[in-house]
């Protein structure tokens, strides 16, 4: 009989109060982190580890955010998935609704046919919905992408980034978020969707379910165009 063991640990501070925020060089950062692990033994031996970390620093004129994402899966001792993703974005607030942004990303996916991919973009963002329970930010801007295929060559192309960030406080205990982005390039378009629903359980403990889909229009031979990930995590707020 196949036995399944599920261990999920997560932490978030998206609603952190100033006294709880992280102190770094005299500034306050709100942090979030998630860690999930699934293992099966018996007829098959598999394991999947996913981890996410996020930090946000809000100032009068600036907002800085850092996101780190890692995924590793093994099947009978053989690695079947391994991905690392990092993103940094700085927003300069022109008004309460308008801002300029600069964004850097780096991705290392062992199974997408590239040794790495990185992007640099500059652009304009606007909060088009801003109510007590709902917000929507839209962004657009030009940039560049560097890709290194496994054959060792280096590809450079111009891109146009389109992105939307939606958040809805469904109730006092539930929050829905949707993130959509597309890096439209000369050679390929990389689109990403992250859908998540988080529900409070008690005190700082909550449950979160998320679905991530990434689609690349032009990929090396033998590589799928679309990757998906479904995660259910327990969330602890601090």
Q: What's the gist of this structure?
A:
Helix content is 0%, strand content 77%.
Keywords:
238 residues; mainly beta
How is this fold's topology laid out?
Layout (H helix, E strand, L loop, with lengths): L2 E10 L9 E3 L2 E15 L4 E13 L3 E14 L2 E16 L4 E12 L4 E17 L3 E16 L5 E17 L2 E12 L3 E14 L2 E12 L9 E12 L1
Parallel strand pairs: 1-14
Antiparallel strand pairs: 1-3, 2-3, 3-4, 4-5, 5-6, 6-7, 7-8, 8-9, 9-10, 10-11, 11-12, 12-13, 13-14
What does this structure look like?
By secondary structure, the chain is mostly beta strands. The chain is built from no helices and 14 strands. The protein has strands at residues 3-12, 22-24, 27-41, 46-58, 62-75, 78-93, 98-109, 114-130, 134-149, 155-171, 174-185, 189-202, 205-216, 226-237. The chain has a 13-stranded mixed beta barrel with strand order 1-3-4-5-6-7-8-9-10-11-12-13-14. A hairpin with a 2-residue loop joins β10 and β11. The protein is globular and about 50 Å long. The model is unreliable at 1-26 (pLDDT under 50).
The whole-number mean of residue pLDDT values reads 84
Largest sheet: 13 strands, mixed, barrel
Radius of gyration: 19 Å
Secondary-structure element pattern, one letter each: EEEEEEEEEEEEEE
Helical residue percent?
under 10%
What's the total helix number? Answer: 0
Low-confidence stretches: 1-26
